[in-house]
Amino acid sequence: MISDLFLIPFLTGLGLAVLLPLLGCYLRLRDEWLAALAYSHVAAAGALLALVGGLPPALGGIAAAGLAGTGKRLFAARLAGGAAYALLLLGGWAVSVLMAANQPMAERLGHALFDGQLYFSGSDQLWLVALGVPAALLVLRGLSAHLLLAHTYPDFFRIRGLRAWPTQIGFDLLAALALAVATMSLGVMGAFALVFIPPWLAFRRAGNWRSGLLWSLAIGITAYLGAFALALWLDQPFGPILAILLVALGLIVA
Amino acid sequence: MLRADAVVAGWDKPATSPVDFSLQAGEIVGLTGPNGVGKSTLLAAFAGRARVFSGHLDLRPGLRLALQTQEVPPVDGLPLSGRELLALTDASPDGLPPWLAERLDIRLDRLSGGQRHYLALWAVLHAPADLVLLDEPTNNLDAAGVRHLTAHLHERAREGCGIVVVSHDAAFVAAACDRCVVLEARDDQ
Fold first, then answer.
1. CATH no. for B2-182
2. What CATH number has the domain spanning A2-253?
3. Where are the domains of chain A?
4. CB distance A159–B48 less than 8 Å?
5. Which of A159, B4, B50, B175 could form a disulfide with B21 if both were Cys (CB 3.0 to 4.6 A apart)?
6. What is the complex's ipTM, to 2 decimals?
């Protein structure tokens, strides 16, 4: 009974623990790790707005993050140097806090989104992850060579007639949607921890890109399994336990 | 494959004097001249990056270009090996000098500046291309590297590839290029 109760949250989180560290490698490649925090905050704000408006919170979160991911590209020239992510992060945080402060319904969900209450995940979130993660991994695999080439040889990429916008918008949208889904289950900081710390550690040790991806994946899954068991055993919110585990791992390795 | 008639190139404003230039398949042509005459800008114009303000630039339709700029690929902190870098541009590692071939599986940010530069250059030089544009390829190379590069430019040209080389290294240009075009400063410079 208990195992059935926790199976859905466990599998939901496991799917995200596979996707986020790999996504984080490409965000780190592009020096866009702040995007993870930005999209998570925007997704939280979108979820709270949807809840107050009588719509499914997950739909609101995904729509808001998707809009931010694609819309960001329109202002890329004016908001260079990570400014777009800083503005999205601050805007998302401000809306979330104001919604939680003024709407009792939003306050409860707001706490869940920022605390990272994985154990409340339902079958709808598991379905989203079960369908979304394999699709996201396939898209990421398809974009990988172009993302690497555009980073190392931007001029070569352009003069070979390769269009930059499908890669850029495709990746932005993928990151935004993945972070939105992850925020609904792992919480804002839990999702950020899985995007930031495994690639950060993996990039220090790995000898090549492929092993960097594998190291990142292994660190992310190991930390997730440890955090899931520890949070359950200590009866604590999942997000902070995952973050503490990854921070401790980061400090030990660093 | 490439013909320029009285081309004046630049970014925001004209930066070169009018240049006549032509390149056939299998030919290596050097572009030299004092600093600031617009050698790199002209190369960028050939690649379609810089603007042609006047004159006529004609490239054979369907030409596959490869461009090496003076900017080093930003690989610090990235676990990217030399072999993976070459794979990105579809460049073959065959023909690399032994002192580099044996380091192909080491990540790029753990190689010396010269080794990293030569691998980055090789990735462009040996990418599938009809026209290769190289901007100061001998920067950071020691004498052995320059000799190896010279030999491989000739080999690449024998395969039918046209090559334009911007360089301030007169000895390298003399050894590597079939002929040389000297750019002159604009009247207003």
1. 3.40.50.300
2. 1.10.3470.10
3. 2-253
4. yes
5. B4
6. 0.88
